[in-house]
Structures are given as C-alpha cells and as structure tokens.
Amino acid sequence: MSEIYTENLSFAYQTEKIIGNVDLKVDNGQILVILGPNGIGKSTLLSCLSGLHGNYQGKIQLEDEELKSISSRELSHSLAFVSQGVNAKSNLTLYDYLLLGRSSFHSIFSQPDKKDRKKVEAVLEQIGLSQYRAKSVSDMSGGQRQLTQIGRALVQEPKLLIMDEPTSALDYKNQILVLKLIKALSQIDISIIISTHDPNQAMMVGDQVGLLINNQTYLQGETEEVLTEQNLTDLYKTPIVSTYNSKLKRDIFGTKME
Amino acid sequence: MLLAGLLLVVLIIISMMMGRYNLSVSDVFKYFTGSASSSTQLILKLRFIRIIAVILVGAGLSMAGATFQAVFNNGLASPNILGVATGSSVGAAFAILYGMPIYVIEISAFVMGLITVFLTLLIDKFLHSNSGISLILAGIIIAGLMQSILGSIKYIADPEDQLQSIVYWELGSFMKVDLNALISVGPILVIGIVFLILARWRLNVLSLDVATVKTIGINPKLNRNLMILFATLLTAASVCLCGVIGWIGLVVPHISRSIVGGDNRVSVPMTGIVGAILLVIADTLARSISVNDIPLSIVTGFIGVPIFIFILLRRKSSIV
What letter does residue A62 receive in the DSSP assignment? Predict the structure, then answer.
C-alpha cells in the first residue's frame, strides 16, 4: 500500500510555475531519494508533500486521504518534516528539544507526561545521543544537531518522514551516520523521502529515485533503472560517468576533471 | 525555585517592616494574627496592599518579557522595547484626559498596547529583514511615535489635575495604589500570570521557526497571537496600576534563564518569582531611602542596567 502518492502535482509562486506534472509514489517502508540541480524546486516539492504549501494544484494522497483534508495536528501524527540546514538556535537541552515533537499530542495547557518521556528516551537510543541528553542544542556539533532534528521528527511517531537535504551541511562521517539512520528507519517500516545533490547517496540508500528535471518533468523509478549516466548527465547538464565498485557492490558516479 | 520563593517571603516581611516608620518583625506577625495596635495595623495594611500589587506587577511584567522573548525568539524583546508599555500609557492617558473610570482606563491601555504591538510587527514585516534587530528597530520607531502622542496629550491636559496623573503613569510608582485599584486591576494580572504559567510549555515550541512549528502540528499564528495577547494584557494592566516601569521585563527573563536554563516550563515561573523579588526590593528602596517616593523606573534602571551589562558580557551566543 502506498504511504503517499501524487497525481499531476504542480505548484506556482504567483504566476511562476516551480514544479509541474509530478507523479510520485512511495510505498510503506520505502526510501525515495529526490535528485535535482540547485533551484529546480526540490524544497518546494517537499514543502508541498509536508503540507506547508496548501495551494498546490493536483492531488496529494496520504494513505487514503487527500492531504488538504487532513488537519495539521492529525498530519503531524503521521508525517514529520525536517527542514534544510542544521543551524537551529535553541537554548533547550537535547531532551527538552526532543519533547517539542510531542506538543501536538497535548492541549495548550498540558505538560509532557510519562508516555512522552518514554518516547523521547527511545528516540535518544535510536539516534545514538543518549549521553548528550543534558547538552544544550546550541552547543552541539553540526552532525549532532542534524540527528537532533531527525530525533525531534521521530518523536512525532510518523509513518512518513520527509527530509530536505539532511546531509548537505555535514562532513563525510556525519553524512554516513545520517544515511545509516535513514536506512535503519526504513527497516522499521517508516517511509522516507529525502532530497540530495549526490547521486552516490541515492545509490546507497534509495529504493526509488525521483529526478526533478525541470518545472514540467519528474521521472521516478527503481534506483538502478533511473540512475544512469545519461539521465544524470541530462539532469545536471554536465558529463557524469559511472563505474562499478566490487568492494562496495554498487555503481559510483563522478566526473572527469580534464 | 523553592529557595527563590522563600527569599520572596522573607523580602515581603522585611519590606513590610521598612518605610517612613520602621516596624519590627513581631509587629508584622501581629498584623497577620490581627493583634497589632490600630495605627500599626493601618500602616501595615497599606504596605501589604502595596506589596501585593508590587509582586503581581513584578511577576506580570517579567513574564510578559519572557513571553515576548520566546515568541519573537529575540533576547531584546520586552514590553518597553516593543513599545507596548508606552502604547498602553497613551491609552491610559487618553482615558484620563476624558475623565474615564478605572475600568475604561484599563481597556483603553490594553487596546492601545495591542495596537502598538500590531504596528511594531507591521513595520518589522516591511523592513524585510530576518535579523532580530529589525523588530527592535520597529519597536523603537513605534515607541517614539507613542512618546510623541503622549507628549501631545500632556500638552493639552489640565495642569492642575490630569497632567499630574499622566506624569504619574509615565514615571512609575506604587504610591497611589490602594485596595480599590488592586481589586480592579489585580484579577487581570492574576489571569494573565496563570495563563502564561499554564501555557509555558507551548512557549518552547513557539521559539522554533514557523515551518517546523507547523509540521509539529501546532498553529503558529494562533498560538503566537494568543501569547502576545496575554503578554500585552499583563503589560497594560501593570501600566494601569503603577505606570511604566523599565528594565524588569527585559532583564529578569535573562536572570532566570541563567539560573534555571532555557526551558520555559521552569524559567517562566522562575521569571515570575525573580521579577517579584526585584520589584519588591526596588519599591522598598523607592519608598525608604528618601522622604518622598522616588519614581520606580529610576530605581529599576540603577538595578537593571548593571545586571544587563553583566548578562551581555557573560553570554556565549548572540542575543537577537
């Protein structure tokens, strides 16, 4: 069963069309990686899917319901979003920051309860930051902050997690840490949509890959089928070659520098 | 928190002892048991009413400041810097000019306080800047406008009667606070304080960016406006009771955060207690160190400025 799918999705700022004809589909526990050059509309697409841009054209179906008909409170219990960048400015400790993900389970006058604390404890284990629970978020490293953002989203208990370039501001070690977490989350049946610039990351974690080619064309399919030299060369308008690495057991993409 | 509460109780007793006529601890205890002499009973009753008003205003203004700082995610936001206090003074002055009763003065101060916040936010929006400085700049602009309007009201006010009342609001003092004033304004302060204490966890999530707040499932606009409404209500009610008091709303939230950390679940109640403590000290000094009451903003300025400089120097991260 599809967690989310779109039919002929398009979005325009005033008269300028940003994305169009997007037919996207993610099944339960699948990872969809969206690739596209800078400024092509990846963030806009993810914002539409997350319910942040309500005035889109076409259809976004989350499980059995049209996205527009779901209240933001209900939506937050099945879908969580991690925005781009890891510069969250907060004086809260990691533990208190993660608790924020439980806000919509309560009324304005409520305080977090035992169930919330239990969930936060579980997520702290999941993201591997239990020992930093009392550390201020603003004192954390870039990698820890990104994991914190993902943790805050996981505390919402989503079935679908959408992340806008979750590895873009991280060093290689932290990129791998985040990608491993993404893979582990899909194995516990959380569907995931991420955007990235790096086709190698799509090869590493993607079950499906979506190419946002221009504001009229979106191409989605199985990772190995979509990630071809020709498709990537057309997408980034620069010659891209691939080579099979037997140690990694997958294709690696790159560009000749001469 | 418990220690701060105990300190406040001790300060209340000390404050009741101090004044033009110094009294002993036993006089204060006798007052509470109803066995003090009638003259002592009368003096202590007046002091007690005043101290209750001071506590409510100190807690209210500080918590309003903490709320503004949380929803605008800006450590410089406060009732005074956003122009709310001056706006509320204009509202109060207008009502005084037309000889209105106290409840009309309250409503007028509240409405003008809200209009001021709205104008400040409108100018901030037009400045098209994401830096926290633009909000402060907008507050300074609107506070300047409100100051001019207040000046105009003073210019046309009757110097025998109205002008004196308006100047009283401007300087800030609890000298004229009696039981009637406390009964008519106190409940509003209590409502505002209770609301912010109950809703303090929600302030944490409102410190995040709007998109994140939305995807967490919280309506950022509704929640933010509700918090601004109650913070403005507290500011306006404080202005009605004792006029404009500077520094408390800005400095106290920083003091309490430096003691208990940034979680509003703990820091908002702490801010209320620290605000009450500081204002009780300031008011006790204002009515004890000279024959006449010293305007309160003078005292809070002398206390607030060095504390704020100390906080700024100790900070690791940017304040706006």
Answer: E
